[in-house]
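Regression test case RT-17, inverse folding.

Input:
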């Protein structure tokens, strides 16, 4: 290749790296970032799990027993093959799903923003040989882990 072709190839690869819509360049360097989030969470694990259990229980008590006394049962299924389900059972399954979605959303939006902007944790991590793609991957994996721990709690 000539020098001019090499310059073009380097400029093209630099343009691809600068493109916002490029695919992420991932490595296994996201794992220490995930472990860092886990170690920080271990300090607050008990209050976090208590809150994750208490919130769905409050919904079940308020709406399950309070409103459930008025509703009774819910018809589910197709016409002709309907099944009567107690309202508390209907609400419990939705409450578990709501808790998982809320936990993942909170962790991915507010907590990640707080680590990025308020605490400047991402700035400290970026001083290590870790790319931004790896940090974002670790944050997404952490949000999924928190959601899974919320559902199993």
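Golden output:
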């Amino acid at each position: 290749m000539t020098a001019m072709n090499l310059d073009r190839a380097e400029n093209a690869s630099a343009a691809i790296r600068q493109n916002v819509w490029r695919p992420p360049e991932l490595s296994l360097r996201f794992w220490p970032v995930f472990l860092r989030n886990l170690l920080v969470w271990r300090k607050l694990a008990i209050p976090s799990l208590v809150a994750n259990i208490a919130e769905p229980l409050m919904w079940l008590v308020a709406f399950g027993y309070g409103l459930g006394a008025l509703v009774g049962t819910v018809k589910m299924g197709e016409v002709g093959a309907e099944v009567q389900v107690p309202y508390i059972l209907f609400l419990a399954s939705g409450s578990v799903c709501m808790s998982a979605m809320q936990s993942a959303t909170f962790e991915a939006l507010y907590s990640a923003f707080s680590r990025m902007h308020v605490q400047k944790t991402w700035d400290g991590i970026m001083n290590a040989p870790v790319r931004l793609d790896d940090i974002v991957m670790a944050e997404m994996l952490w949000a999924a882990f928190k959601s899974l721990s919320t559902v199993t709690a």
